[in-house]
Structure formats: C-alpha cells, structure tokens
Specification:
Elements (H helix, E strand, L loop, with lengths): L8 E2 H5 L1 H4 L7 E7 L7 H11 L5 E6 L5 H10 L4 E4 L13 E2 L1 H6 L4 E4 L5 E4 L2 H13 L7 E5 L4 H12 L4 E5 L3 H11 L15 E3 L4 H7 L5 E4 L23 E4 L8 H8 L3 E3 L2 H16 L5 H13 L2
Parallel strand pairs: 1-3, 2-3, 2-4, 5-7, 8-9, 8-11, 9-10, 11-12, 12-13
Antiparallel strand pairs: 4-6, 6-7
Helix pairs in contact: 3-12, 6-7, 6-11, 11-12
The structure holds NADP nicotinamide-adenine-dinucleotide phosphate.
Length: about 325
C-alpha cells in the first residue's frame, strides 16, 4: 500500500530522496521550495491536475532555507525531479542558480518555476506575470493590452510581476503606486522602453509614478480602467483601507491579489460603488496552470486544478 507524503519535506530528505520517498506512489517529482512552506496550497492544486492528466508524478512541499538553496538545485536532477515551484523568500535568489532564465523571468527579476531538462539543465521561468494576465482575461473578459492600469504595491514581488507583464503586453497606460516611492520610480525607469512610441500621446503620460496620497490618486481616476492591489494589505480585518471608496468609479475593474478572505474590504467597497471586483484566486490558479505547461509542454487540466484549489481553501 503506497504511503501518504509528509506534509513538508526538508533539505536532509532531499539528500536521500529515492530512499525517503521510496514508498510514495506516484513518485514525488515536483515540489514547491519555500521558507516557510507548510501553508502552500500548491500540492492540493497540482496533484488533482497531475492525476487528471494521467501523469505518474506527485507534488510535495520542500522546506529549503536560503543557505541550502544552491545545493538543493544541484540535487534536483539526480533526485529525478521534473521541476519545482519557488516561493518566498527564494524567487530572486533562484535566478543565479539557473543555467538559463526566460526573458519574462529576467525582467520580473524572479523565478517561480524551475524546469529540469532531460540533460539535468535547470531553466528558470516566471508564471506570476502570465498568471496575472490570464486571470484578468478570465475575470473581466479583457486583455491587458486594452487597459489603463493602476497598480498599488508596484514595488513588491507580486506587484512588480504584474507591472512587468502589463508593460510587456503594451497596456494602454500604467500607473505605479508604492508606499516606498523609490521602488516604483526604479521600476518606471526599467519599463520606460515599452512605452516609447511615435503615436500621439493623450492628455496624461502613458507611464507614471504617483505618490500614495488621496489627491494624487484622485487625479488619476478618470484615466484608469483597472486597479490592482499588489500590496500585502487586505488579509486582516485590521489592515488600513487601501483606497477611499469615493475614489472608485463604477466603470472600473478592481483586481485584489489577496484571496483570503475571498471578499476583501477593497472588493466590497468597489462593489458598493458599482464597480466589478475579483480576488487573487484566479491568479494563483493560472500561475499554477502555466507552471504545468512549462513542465509538460501540454495543456493543463484547468478545471481539476481549480476544484483542488477551491476545495483546499474551503477546508482551511
Ligand atoms: P512583498 O514582495 O513583500 O511586497 C509587499 C508590498 O506591499 C510592497 O509593495 C509593500 O510596499 C506593500 N506594503 C506592505 N505593507 C504596506 C502598508 N502598510 N502600506 C502600503 N503598502 C504596504 O509581497 P508579495 O510577495 O509581492 O505579496 C503581496 C501580496 O500579493 C500578498 O498579499 C500575497 O499574498 C499576494 N500574492 C498573491 C498571488 C496570487 O497568485 N494571487 C501571488 C503572489 C502574491 P513597500 O515596497 O513600501 O514595502
């Protein structure tokens, strides 16, 4: 009878992987690296997807500390891994451990998906930006390229991934807002190349950094279709309000990357103003779907993964 996987494996397990996981069926060939990692819902999303696709592999959590990261990557090919996801705090440090990194991952400055090629080479990808892109399409039936977008928290990891994707998709307009404004300014400098064109400019700049204050944000609202929360605010009831509700207009779409609680204060405020709002569950799903596509070069069983993820959140 096959054994159940441990809720979390660690670096010492990875060093003896074939021995430690000998009783697992299907074999553990995919993982998420993180510190901490016990909270990750990725196994509950990926394992139903792998089963639905008939792939003989399972996905587990690996608690890897920063000082173990480089060695953990060296061990992956010999342990028979297809790949791994990477979460906090290793996404940036992983760049240096890869033989190759995709253009998207390099521009985002982070790797969240590693593919182990058949010769053992490690390729670093990022599915957070593309996951955000597909989430917006699913939630609002519109592409980033058609939107004027304001990102709150553009200096954090998730906000930066979204901003880079918006720029690479040549969105109509991008407004970067971050508590530490210097980070948004540095990101603007990096992204400026995507917004240079010969076409006639409108009444406002296509790429702007705006300080996080009420009046500055108010001046933007007639020129923005999609507002994204990429900050870590919104998970707790006691978190400060992100935007005064009077700033939100009925034509706007609000995407809150937070998914627990499922209806954040920002979403509730937006809906009360007549705007459409969605939480970050779709981004979590689609980044997983895109990771699956990187590993297997085939379409992922999206609905099986969605059911797995929703079930995991309901049982939390
Ligand atoms: P991070 O790198 O630590 O960035 C945190 C961001 O929040 C920074 O922009 C930070 O601004 C800002 N922030 C923190 N406290 C703030 C405050 N009191 N007032 C204003 N801004 C504040 O975190 P992350 O990894 O990007 O994650 C951010 C959020 O996105 C989290 O809620 C996470 O769960 C969510 N997320 C969702 C998905 C998904 O798939 N749905 C994926 C990734 C992340 P400073 O730069 O000034 O510090």
């Amino acid at each position: 009878m096959p054994a159940d996987p441990k809720p979390v494996y660690d670096f010492s397990d990875l060093k003896r992987w074939s021995e430690v996981t000998a009783d697992l069926e299907p074999p553990a060939k995919l993982s998420v690296f993180g510190d901490p990692v016990a909270h990750s819902l990725s196994p509950q999303m990926h394992n139903p997807g792998l089963a639905a696709a008939g792939i003989n592999a399972q996905y587990v959590r690996l608690h890897i500390r920063s000082e173990e990261l480089a060695d953990a990557y060296r061990l992956l090919p010999e342990a028979g891994f297809i790949g791994t996801n990477v979460t906090i705090p290793h996404k940036t440090e992983t760049l240096a451990a890869m033989a190759e990194v995709t253009d998207v991952a390099r521009r985002i400055g982070a790797v969240n998906t590693v593919v182990v090629e058949s010769d053992g080479t490690l390729i670093g990808h990022n599915s957070d930006g593309p996951g955000f892109q597909r989430a917006i399409r699913e939630e609002f039936s519109v592409d980033l390229s058609d939107l004027r977008i304001l990102i709150l928290g553009a200096g954090g990891g998730a906000g930066r991934a979204a901003a880079v994707q918006c720029a690479m998709d040549r969105c109509e307009r991008l407004v970067l807002v971050n508590r530490t404004i210097e980070k948004a300014q540095a990101l603007k400098d990096e992204l400026a190349t995507f917004f240079r064109s010969d076409r006639l400019e409108g009444p406002v700049d296509r790429l702007e950094v705006v300080p996080w204050d009420h009046d500055a944000l108010a001046r933007q609202m007639d020129h923005v279709d999609l507002i994204v929360n990429g900050t870590s605010l919104g998970m707790k009831r006691t978190d400060p309000q992100l935007l005064h509700p009077s700033l939100i207009q009925p034509h706007q779409m609000i995407y809150d990357m937070v998914y627990a609680p499922p209806r954040t204060r920002l979403m509730a405020d937006a809906q009360a103003e007549g705007a459409r709002a969605a939480n970050g569950l779709s981004m979590l799903l689609w980044q997983g779907v895109i990771s699956f596509e990187f590993w297997f070069n085939q379409s992922a069983p999206v609905e099986a993964m969605r059911r797995g993820l929703s079930g995991a959140l309901l049982s939390k």
